[in-house]
Amino acid sequence: MKAIVIRTYGGPEGLALVELPDPVPGAGQVLIGVEAVGVGGFDTLIRSGALAAYRATGTGHVPGSEVAGTVTAVGDGVEGAWLGRRVWGFTGIGGGCAEQAVVPVDELTLLPGDLSAADAVTVGGSGAVGHFGLAHARFAPGESVLVRGAGGGIGVMTVQLAARAGASAVAVTTSSPERGERLRELGATHVLDRSGTGDGPPDGYDVVVDIAAGDALPEFLDRLRPSGRMVVVGIMAGPPPVEFGARMLAAFERSLSFATFSMDSVPGADRRAVRAEQFAAASRGELRAVVQEVLPLQEAVSAHRKLAAGEVFGRLVLTP
């Protein structure tokens, strides 16, 4: 089968299209004939070598953790009823950027018949992060939300989910007025630039969902109302500065809360239930799968270059 591998960690040019043996599902696994692979910022961190756990797998690693397609084979202990079913699947540490991918049966979600594979990999991972990130922040209807770094896959889903859940205001930070207008179409009520400058609610926010982190993260503590909550769901700009803890303590009298969030902390049954609901909502047109572009698998280098250049709004998708 054809697959993308990481020949060398670093820039996009370290990716290569190769021929690999067809994978075989083990016990508790299925084999998926891949129709679409989601590509986002997390994949660029893996390719760059910034995430040590992935780099430890060595060169030759097949990236890609989110796929959609049809189950073509099952391993021991897996019901044969899965054969021929269209599914979304999470591969785990990688293996998705290929014509075939092995996925644990516990990481599958059935797809509605009218939902495309490209839309599935756009909603599946990002939508769940948005949902559980807001829940981790204890967001309630009527509260205001700021989504920092809203132009990517997680951001566009979080904006929609916050608006759909009854937020009193949904502010976003993004890199251009054009992106801001597109985010308004998805439910944003206030558009700020990357530094947070712009016409936001004058009294601040109850919740900040941060996808970027990095050195600028402490500045957004000042945007929180008393008893406000900040949740970091991504680190695309790197970890926060070492003085962040001191900044939190300096705001002691405002009773602010700070948390990180990872999908690894959510029970599998809960993840599957939320994804099934979101896939159904997307098939009804209630959630929008924002796909920037669909590219053939062999253009993985181009996809990663577009991500690195900040050219992507929503999600990029590769198709074998």
Walk me through the structure.
With 320 residues, this protein is of the alpha/beta class. The longest helix is centred in the middle third of the chain and has 20 residues, at 117-136. Helix content is 27%, strand content 27%. The chain folds into two domains: 2-110 and 290-319, Quinone Oxidoreductase, Chain A, domain 1; 126-263, 3-Layer(aba) Sandwich (Rossmann fold). The strands form three sheets. Strands 3, 4, 5, 6, 7, 14 and 15 form a seven-stranded mixed sheet that branches. A six-stranded parallel sheet has the order 10-9-8-11-12-13, with helices on one face. Strands 1-2 form a two-stranded antiparallel sheet. α3 crosses α4 (153-164) and α3 (117-136) crosses α7 (268-283).
Quick structural summary:
The chain is of the alpha/beta class and 320 residues long. It folds into two domains: 2-110 and 290-319, Quinone Oxidoreductase, Chain A, domain 1 (Alpha-Beta Complex); 126-263, 3-Layer(aba) Sandwich (Rossmann fold).
